[in-house]
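Supplementary notes for students who missed Thursday's class. We covered one full example, reproduced here. Read the sequence, then the structure, then the short commentary at the end.
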Amino acid sequence: MVQVLEKKLQEIFDKQTMYQWEARKTTAEQRAQKLMDLKEAILSRMDCFVEAASLDFVTPASTAQNQIYSVIQAIDYAIENVAKWMQPELVENPQDGEAYVLYEARGRVCIFGTWNSPMSVTIHPLAEALAAGNCVVLKPSELNPNYNKVLLEVIEAVFDEQEVALVQGEADVSEQLLKLPFDHFFFTGSPRVGKIVMREAANHLAAVTLELGGKSPAIIDKGYDLVKAAQNLVFGKVLMGGQFCISPDYIFVHKEDITAFAELYRQMTVGMLYDDGKIRSVERTQIVNEQHYKRIKNLFEDALAKGAVILSGGAFDDDKRLIEPTLLGGVTAGMLIAEEEIFGPLTFVRTYTDVEEVLQYIQANPKPLALYMFSDNENFQQQILASTSSGGVTINGIFMHNTHLPLPFGGVNHSGIGSFHGIHGFKMFSHNRAIYKVN
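Structure (token representation):
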């Protein structure tokens, strides 16, 4: 069985190795047409994708649709801009000639997806890899078997496998792919597995992009509108059941505001998820599987056993794997929830009286993928930005640095390496080749 798998993957790799030189010579018009074909193939299967998402793990139809539309927006953006991106970038010319940067395809790209947002972490980077003129192998998560069937239909309808191939399977498939000398590996997942990908890529001296995660903080300035902050932060845990790499993990609240904030967090949860005094079980995203559900519940129970208190929420539905957005207080070092990425609808608050306490805590921990701050004070904002590091930042909102395509999206150190979205993805999947021409 292993030999059959190795043979099949090697065949695909060999085809893409041969075709990469043709792919890199494609024009902007040809690349845009391929992206247009990809877009139409996805939109024509919208209902199939929504149904597949509900089969793999229950999620609202609107959530599944929004994930698709956000990727369609990214494809459209690439179509509109690929001709401009492909233009040589002139630099200051020497007296005896000319000099410019030529963005050329890296060649063969391997993209590893993840289960929580299977469209945005496979098709979005694929679009930018294609805009850059690469050949691509996609390996989506095995936790989305029904979604993957539809993805496979899309890929096979649009591409020959010498251009783009989708391969399915578990860890053994990923292991075999990592043995092949791709020119670029793009991985979305945990820091633990990210280290494995980076280590294996080093054997080929391949470029890597690692979209990881970590514990993303939110900071609420004293005097900021707590209603707005609570609304955003609860939504950050309602969306995908908090199973989102940039979902806020913990919240800094001024000591004088903690009682009011906790009550507003409760009210916002009730407003978003309750009907007639009862929490809804429909139109909510369940935890993806029993393993992850038990892991999140263990974080909660461990915290309570060690002295944490429930400030809001706390309802668990074991049968449907649903967890109410829950806010904990009294979380201290040594509790699992303080150390591990939550990746679920739990969060906790830490109080402060001086912003230096906030900065010292964030600086002492690995750099997060996202950082959120709620403040109308420009000096406060600049102080946080100057004294912290994160993949991206949204001020007075949630997730928006991820949705604005002209901005790069990616982590830093523990939360990732490299970034994509728009021209940043095009350049990431390209080699910036220096050209000096003497007249």
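Commentary. The domain at 216-403 is CATH 3.40.309.10 (Aldehyde Dehydrogenase; Chain A, domain 2). DSSP finds 16 helices and 22 strands in the chain. If anything here is unclear, bring it to office hours.
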